[in-house]
Amino acid sequence: MVAINIREGREKVAAWVRDNGVTVRVLLDRDGAVTAAYRVTGTPTVVLVGRDGRMVARAVGSRDWRGDKGRALLKALLAAAAG
After folding, report:
1. What average pLDDT does this structure show over 7-35?
2. Cys staple from 35: which of 1, 16, 40, 79, with CB 3.0 to 4.6 Å?
3. Using CA atoms, how far apart are residues 44 and 23, in angstroms rounded to an integer?
């Protein structure tokens, strides 16, 4: 899992990561190329990428990934990938 910051400077992002206790790797999308490639239209946007590097699913807006529905979706995607 990685987070991608959209067009902000390294110092600003580093301060936000530190202040919010973020523990995942945060990548900088300085020119917006990643944002464009994954058709990000709002934040947060979650993109699930398969082992083959292709987009499996995407969701715009907040989701309860730790709830029953979120866990069931992730479990089904992992099972399909292992299949």
Report:
1. 93
2. 40
3. 17
Instruction: Let me know: does 55 contact 45? Beta carbons within 8 Å.
Output: no
Q: Does 20 have pLDDT greater than 70?
A: yes
What is the domain range of residue 59?
2-82
State whether residue 40 is helix, strand or coil: coil
The pTM for the full model equals 0.64
Q: How many angstroms separate the Cα of 34 from the Cα of each of 1, 26, 63, 65?
A: 15, 13, 21, 23
Which sign, positive or negative, has the C-alpha torsion 40, 42, 46, 48?
Answer: negative
Partners of 5 in the β-ladder: 28
Nearest alpha carbon to residue 40 among 7, 75, 67: 7
pLDDT at 81: 67
What CATH number has the domain bearing residue 42? 3.40.30.10
Could you report the per-residue pLDDT of 37-50, keeping only the tens digit for each? 888 888 888 888 88
